[in-house]
Amino acid sequence: MLGFAISGCMELGQLIFLHNRFATPVDLLTNTSGAVIGALLAGASARALAKKAQARHLPAAGL
């Protein structure tokens, strides 16, 4: 949702202040999609790193 809001603000600013550029709904869609994909990748990476760090701190059973 935050990616959509930021992209919307950028496109609105582009529409108002930059007359040689064009704001389009396709830009809003692609920027939002990129934000979602980036958030999913960051979440997956964080989970993998947390799992790896947790595995390092488990005591060896039966030793």
Describe this structure as you would to a colleague.
- Helices cover 76% and strands 0% of the residues.
- Helix 1 packs antiparallel against helix 2.
- It starts with a helix and ends in a 7-residue tail after the last helix.
- The protein has 63 residues and is mainly alpha-helical.
- It is rod-shaped.
- The protein is built from 2 helices and no strands.
What brief labels describe this structure?
2 helices
> What spatial form do the alpha-carbon principal axes imply?
rod-shaped
Mean pLDDT: 88
The largest sheet is: none
Beta-strand portion reads under 5%
Number of helices: 2
The poorly predicted ranges are none
The helix/strand class is mainly alpha
Please give the share of residues in helix.
over 70%
The strand count comes to: 0
Report the order of strands and helices.
HH
Rg (CA only): 20 Å
- The separation of the N and C termini measures 49 Å
Blueprint of the fold:
Blueprint (H helix, E strand, L loop, with lengths): L1 H16 L7 H32 L7
Helix pairs in contact: 1-2
Summarize the structure.
This protein is mostly helical. The protein has helices spanning 2-17, 25-56.
